[in-house]
Amino acid sequence: MALIKVEDLFFRYPQAKAPVLDGLSVAFEQGERVAILAPNAAGKTTLARWLAGLYPDGGLVAERGHVSMDGKPWPQWSAAERAAAVQFVGQVPSQQLTGCAFTVYEEIAFGPCNLALPEGEVRARVEQALAVCNLKHLAKRDPFTLSGGEQQRLSIAAALAMQPRVLILDEPTSNLDPESRDDFIAQLDALPAGLTVIVFEVALRPSLGLARRFMLLDEGRIVVDGTPETVLAHPRCIETLGMTAVARAAFEIREAGRWPEGLALPLTLAVAEQSFREAARA
Ligand SMILES: Nc1ncnc2c1ncn2[C@@H]1O[C@H](COP(=O)(O)OP(=O)(O)OP(=O)(O)O)[C@@H](O)[C@H]1O
């Protein structure tokens, strides 16, 4: 049985003419690392919230279809059960802060304390989350004095301290400069092996180091589900997503009619070099 399953989900915001999700179906297994790519306003946050069980909510209901975890539709889960199973980290880190913690340490402890866990267990979870997210040196700082990137790491640490089975990250690298972004992604690689991570991004590059399965969300559906190369090969990718510099160069060479037929667009310099060598031999 799939861990999270979306079945024929058709959703439009009240008063909106067009649906954001137009009969979308997809399934995720335990331990998968998935990147869902789409341009701005394509519905990433909306789908992320459905996956995390934050929708349906009030008037925000699907016209058709549903999302289930362990075969049980989200409305059948209590808020506490859901919070222990799935954690969602949104793209504006300051909005994730509880507002009632004086320190980074307390901010991370907030969720586990709400689960009424024993003090020692809370402490162990906080220490582990501080270490994974490289926040030990900031443990005594006021969360509101952190930079955007540090707050993003804090939001993820707070989510991890809940020890969820699924972590959903909505554009987690949007506040990071390129160097911090690479460090941050390298840290995500150290997340617990069994944890399912679903990351939503606008560009392909930030998720290359994290995901093993890549999807393109377009016009309310998943139109590609596979490797980064299959995403690159999709015609909509060129229009909608940023590419790595190497892929962009190869794409332009291909547009000029000089890229060897049948050769995949390369994602990295190493693959590009190999492609050129093969092309020269042919
Ligand atoms: N609460 C809401 N009420 C009405 N429309 C909404 C609401 N939230 C989002 N939308 C609209 O739904 C569409 C998809 O928005 P969503 O935030 O899911 O896209 P996104 O891919 O995450 O965008 P971005 O990359 O810019 O954050 C947009 O047109 C947006 O204006």
From TrEMBL:
- Superkingdom is Bacteria
Name all ABC transporter domain ranges: 4-244
Q: Name one GO molecular function term.
A: ATP binding
InterPro entries per record: AAA+_ATPase, ABC_transporter-like_ATP-bd, ABC_transporter-like_CS, ABC_transpr_CbiO/EcfA_su, ECF_ABC_transporter_ATP-bd, P-loop_NTPase
One Pfam family per UniProt: ABC_tran
Print the keywords alphabetically: ATP-binding, Nucleotide-binding, Transport
Q: Which family is this sequence assigned to?
A: Belongs to the ABC transporter superfamily.
Name assigned to this protein: Energy-coupling factor transporter ATP-binding protein EcfA2
